[in-house]
Amino acid sequence: MGIIKAIANGIGTTLRKPRLLIILYVVNAVFALVAAFPFLALIQEDLGHSLLGSFVQPVDLMWLGEAVLEHQDSLMALLAGLAAAALVYLVLHIFLNAGIVGRLLDREGRATLPVFSADCGRYFWRFVRLFLVALIFYVLTLGIFMSLVSALFKPLAESAVTEWLPLILSNIHFLIALLLLSIVHMVVDYARIAVVADEERKVLKALRHALTFLRKRFFRAWAIYLLIVVLTVAGTVVFYALLGLFGTPGVPQVVAGLVLMQIYVLFRIWVRTVFVAAQAEFYRSHPY
Amino acid sequence: MKNRIIGACLILGAMLVLLPAPAMSGQTAPSPAAGAPGLRYEIWVELDAAGKMLLGKEEIVWTNPTKDAVPDMLLHLYWNAFKNEDSVFLREALAETMFASGSSPEDGDWGWIDITDIRLADGSDLKPALAFVTPDGPETEGDQTVARVLFPTPVQPGESVHLRIEFRSKVPRTVARSGYYRDSFFIGQWFPKPGVYEEGRGWNCHAYHQNSEFFADFADFVVHITVPRGFVVGSSGKASETRVDESAATTTTTYRQAMVHDFAWMADPRYLKVEREFVADREVAPKEYEDTAALLGLPLDEVRLPDVKMILLIAPEHKGQIERHFRALRAALKYYGLWYGPYPYETVTMVDPPFRTGSGGMEYPTLFTAGTNALASRNVLSPEGVIVHEFGHGYWYGLAANNEFEAAWLDEGFNTYSTGRVLAAAYGAGSFSLNFKGWPLDWFLRIPKTFDFELNRVAAINTVRFDPVTAWSWEFYNRGSYGANVYMRAATLLSTLEGLLGEPAWPRIMRTYHMRYRYKHPTKADFIGVVNEIAGKDLTWFFDELLDATRAFDYGVAGLSSVKVPRQLRGIYDTAGTREEWTDKKIEETAAAKAPEGGNPETLYRTTVVLRRYGEACIGGDARVKVLVRFKDGTTETRNWDGQARWTRLEIVKPVEAESAQIDPEGVWLIDENLANNSRGVDGTRRNVVKLMSQLLFTVQCLLHFVGSWS
Fold it and tell me: What are the tens digits of pLDDT across the range B478-493?
């Protein structure tokens, strides 16, 4: 299967199963609302009755400075709460992801809540184990490999005559890190697909399936990955361009901005689902 | 008769209010051409670029300006701060809790200065009587940044002493301000320099501290700098002659400058040297001169600016930013000149700091270092901010030469305040500087634009509880508190004072203070004296409360309510010997009977505004907390509160409900640490708050989505 067809089929699959997107969106929105609630309450307390509330900007340094001072005692607790919420969300998302992959791989199957939940439960612990194994890969990539790259670059940077060389090296370093990260991320994605598609209970075996699969068609698989990244970036640019149009703060603009932001979140969730669906299509077209 | 007296009083009162603030006197300061009265230097220095060494000879002629007989001289040997980790500088740097990383040199990167010979002009050897002293703390053998030399006989009042010194120095790999990287050298605080002799107090000569800068007397300098041929040199002062020694492959240039208190230079074989003229008549329109003269109450001639030669030394990789550098310098020359007084020297040299010499953003008389990046955004006012600020130090510290060890706020605060004003006048607001991997993020994102005073305030309100602004430089809690207090908090307080006093008093205060203390060493008391004199009232409380103390300033509106006033309170009343009960029904009936035919009875509302002093700091003198109450029919009422108690309650009865109450509606009290509580509306949440909340929710949603994508 070609990469464009894999992406097109992936898009088709996600569009046929909009419930998956709705589930993910609702969970995201509700969880975000809960996690953000203490911050929203602080904003309401500080600005709800103040005339400053009519002028405050989304990134308002004057107000942010005094808000940090005003709430300095509770700030660490709030940020720790947010981090804890993110951690819980991560675990929850592992659970949901199991259902997503399960339903996307069952191309003709329905995406009802009971079936989705069953998939979540069936694959959850395998996905947890895979996540923990993936962590090792991320640490190896970012920690050890990138340290080696840094060590390689350091003598060059230290002997630089102008700022250009350190700047270029720093950017190359970052680019290498991003590309490596994308590769590891992609391998883990395929391992998840292998867990479901091959009904593989051992995650290391699933990882081996993924690596074997990718060894033969690495660049095509990577191209799928990178194309979808490009799609995400393009969507993000369009989103911010549109958001910029709502410059004047009026009630309709605020409402339109709010709606647009939610559409963007939905877009990101959809793109992430397309990622998995396209990769699943590609994997299935080349049986292990 | 009585009416006439009242009328006369009113006219007199009105005149006092309406008459302009006192026009300034004593606006002329001596010209540099007159030369420094008490101190002369002639220095011969040779740069050994390969060995990273300086070899120097120095002649110092010092005249005792006091009535004291002076038995000794204290000399700064600043580079010994980089000699070992027992120096005051490095001990403080290593103990620093903020911004401490990399403060100590790597092995082999140390710097030092040795006096190899010191004699009087008659040949008397003073070396045996030379000893290191630590004036700011316990004796430590490691600190050799101050040396004391004893004279054979005390220098009597009006008498001069002529010293001949030979010294050699190892240029440090940069720790602070001076140093080398490869073939690039920035040489500051490099020669043995006397402290400042203060009558009755002796030598004011502090060790080199991490959180402090410098203090020295005005002097006339002649400096002969020898560098390997091909090196481009930039220096304080004006180049007068250049000699090439073919056999030694060196070039020696002589620089002269009168009436400055320091001298710095740089050398780099790669650098570009560009010269431009600041032509005053091209930069300042006649109307600007007229407006400035009128505002300051000065003759037109006193506000006219001279032409100045601008010299830029810039790294080739920043060649594309040459005009950007000159534009910023022209703005600085113009506005500092118009506001505080004409730039008195013939040249100003601007140095793009050599790569990895750590010398950026530093001021020296007639020379300063800027700082830019290869990828510099046009929206971010950098290098402009650095250029304006460091040039500005030529005024605040260079000319009005306060003691930076003991009162850093007098230059850093004044100059941070001035920088913000110049940038606002010349450029408007600038984008907040955010970079990722060297890329300015405003190329990709919409970064909010801010004025300096806004950023200064953020730092100012967050630092008040640590230290008073007026603490000595090395006695601050940490480097963060030092920076935020002496730069930002001091600047914010000056902005507050500006708002409080307004025009024309404030610009006249700044001008008078600068010109009166040009070529002098002003103190806080001098500034307060000028403020009180020009403002015509005692504002000492402002300095006591907000600069010398660590009290937070926060007044706010704690409550606002607008309720119907009952036409009659219920209950039993004894009126004219009869007892009468007022019930709800009776009250309504009575009101209806009194109402105009066909209309409703007038409803009165009692608006209650509760004001609180949340902070410890109090306003004083004749300053008042102004309260503006807006009503739903568009009318307003203004009240004033002396702000002494912790709270007060104001009541206004009107036939209309209040809409909002706001203290400080003109935004005078920039130092107020909570502007959100300065106002209160009776309506609910405002749309910008909803927008802010939706943005926050969106950010958390994106954050969670990002986290989830790793699952």
Answer: 999 999 999 999 999 9
**pLDDT tens per residue across span B199-239:** 999 999 999 998 889 999 999 999 999 999 999 999 999 99
For A63, A263, B171, B464, the CA distances from B693, given in Å and listed in that order, are: 14, 17, 55, 29
What residue spans define the domains of chain B? Answer: 33-268, 555-685
Q: What is the share, in percent, of chain B residues with pLDDT greater than 70?
A: 94
Strand partners, B185: B180, B267
**Phi, psi torsion values for B22, nearest 5 degrees:** -55, 135
**Whole-prediction pTM:** 0.90
Pairing mode, strands B196-198 and B202-204: antiparallel
Q: Give B116's Cβ-side CA count (13 Å radius).
A: 10
The whole-angstrom separation of Cα A268 and Cα B708 is 11
User: Given pLDDT bands bounded at 50, 70 and 90, which one contains residue B16?
Assistant: very low
Running DSSP on this structure, what letter comes out for residue B487? I
Distance (Å, rounded) from C-alpha A46 to C-alpha B110? 52
DSSP 8-state code for residue B441: G
Q: What is the DSSP letter of A212?
A: H
Report domain B33-268's class: mainly beta
Burial of B498 (0-12, 13-18, 19+ CB in 10 A): buried
8 Å CB contact of A33 and B448: no
Whether B234 and B347 have beta carbons less than 8 Å apart is answered as no
Measured between beta carbons, the chain B residues lying within 8 angstroms of A153 are none
| Residue B63 to residue B104: CA distance in whole angstroms | 38
Q: Distance, in angstroms, between B694 CA and closest chain A CA?
A: 6
Structure tokens at B439: 């890329």
Shortest Cα distance, chain A CAs vs residue B371, angstroms: 12
CATH number belonging to the domain at B555-685, selected among 2.40.128, 1.20.120, 3.90.25, 2.60.40:
2.60.40
Q: How far is A251 from chain B (nearest CA, A)?
A: 6
- Of B605, B261, B575, which is closest to residue B399 (Cα–Cα)? B261
| Structure-token pair, residue B39 | 């101190």
Compare all CA atoms of chain A with the CA of B446 and give the residue at the minimum distance: A244
User: Is B709 near chain A, with CB under 8 Å?
Assistant: yes
Instruction: Give the pLDDT score at B12.
Output: 38
- Transcribe B329-377 into DSSP letters: HHHHHHHHHHHH----SSEEEEE-PPTTS---SEEETTEEE----SS--
